[in-house]
């Protein structure tokens, strides 16, 4: 399982934010294998 969870998604208050995070956490716990990737360069992929 691969989950692309970015901080920018939560920069603005969103409907059901807590439910979304809880669902991702449930999926991570249930997964056989989980790959975590963290981007740490400034600027991201914006043009």
Automatic annotation (TrEMBL):
Matching InterPro entries: Isochorismatase-like_sf (IPR036380)
Protein name (database record): Isochorismatase
Annotated source species: Klebsiella pneumoniae subsp. pneumoniae
């Amino acid at each position: 399982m691969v989950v692309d969870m970015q901080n920018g998604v939560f920069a603005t208050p969103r409907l059901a934010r807590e439910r979304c995070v809880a669902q991702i956490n449930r999926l991570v716990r249930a997964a056989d294998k989980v790959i975590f990737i963290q981007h740490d360069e400034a600027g991201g992929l914006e043009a």
